[in-house]
């Protein structure tokens, strides 16, 4: 998105909504990350996996005129939707958050806000030019980052 507007993603349970933006260039992009890692480095849906979504989003932002030095991120989601589950394979929310954190850190992208974990789904919307990420839980609680 370039200029004033809103990016929205709903239905974030174990998924993570990641926004990367360049406030000065008034550019922002959003990925709805569903899984921590892609089964292959080449995928038709890079936005689905943390390891490929961040690369895809940065590449698209740079193509649109963003400065790598000004890129910032905010993200939300990663809930543990199955309470009491100890099996690692079902702890997808936690693994998604860890993967997003790692991918952003590996690229030197400063994280300016997060709302992760818990046991409730979320809907998020990001406003440009304010760079405000609003998070609404399934219970109706609101938080602004």
UniProtKB/TrEMBL annotation:
Task: Indicate the secretion signal residues.
Answer: none
Which UniProt keywords are listed?
Chemotaxis, Hydrolase
- Record bears the keyword Oxidoreductase: no
Please give one Pfam family short name.
Answer: CheD
Where do the TM regions start and end? Answer: none
| InterPro entries, A to Z | CheD-like_sf, Chemorcpt_Glu_NH3ase_CheD, Cytotoxic_necrot_fac-like_cat
Q: What this chain does, per the record?
A: Probably deamidates glutamine residues to glutamate on methyl-accepting chemotaxis receptors (MCPs), playing an important role in chemotaxis.
Name the UniProt record assigns to this protein? Probable chemoreceptor glutamine deamidase CheD
């Amino acid at each position: 998105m370039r200029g004033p507007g809103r990016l929205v993603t709903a239905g974030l349970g174990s998924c993570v909504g990641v926004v990367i933006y360049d406030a000065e260039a008034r550019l922002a992009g959003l990925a709805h990350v569903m899984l921590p890692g892609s089964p292959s480095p080449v995928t038709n849906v890079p936005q689905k996996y943390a390891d490929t979504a961040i690369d895809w989003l940065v590449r698209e932002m740079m193509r649109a005129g963003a400065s790598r030095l000004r890129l910032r991120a905010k993200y939300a989601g990663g809930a543990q939707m199955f309470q009491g589950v100890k099996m690692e394979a079902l702890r997808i929310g936690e693994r998604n958050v860890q993967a997003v954190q790692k991918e952003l850190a590996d690229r030197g992208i400063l994280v300016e806000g997060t709302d992760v974990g818990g046991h409730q789904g979320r809907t998020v919307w990001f406003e440009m030019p304010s760079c405000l990420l609003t998070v609404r839980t399934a219970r109706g609680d609101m938080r602004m980052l």
